[in-house]
Design goal:
mainly alpha; two-stranded antiparallel ribbon; about 80% helix
Length: about 100
């Protein structure tokens, strides 16, 4: 069994707290712009500027060539850090239960 030290677990939590807001912003922006564009298009409004935001073009900043890869990597990093915390927490709970039964 792999043991995770309290300091490593604390560092994982800090890293996760830093990464989630950074990853959430582009993910939420992409979801919101895509949904809003669909709703507006159904009403006969062609807000093409939302498609540009949805694909990573933010005015003078053009991330379109990298945006989908960036979203994918951010999603995987947040999932991995969350799973790492979940596994560390589960191991801590199992150790506490095994000590209680002794």
């Amino acid at each position: 069994m792999i043991r995770i030290s309290p300091t490593l677990s604390s560092r994982l939590r800090q890293l996760h707290r830093l990464l989630v807001p950074l990853a959430a912003v582009p993910l939420l922006l992409t979801a919101a712009s895509g949904s809003l564009y669909s709703v507006l298009l159904e009403r006969g409004i062609d807000a093409f500027w939302l498609v540009k935001i949805h694909t990573g073009r933010f005015g003078p900043i053009n991330l379109q060539p990298y945006y989908s890869m960036l979203l994918g990597v951010l999603t995987l990093v947040v999932i991995a850090s969350g799973l790492g915390l979940l596994v560390a927490r589960g191991r801590g709970v199992n150790r506490a239960r095994s000590v209680d039964h002794l």
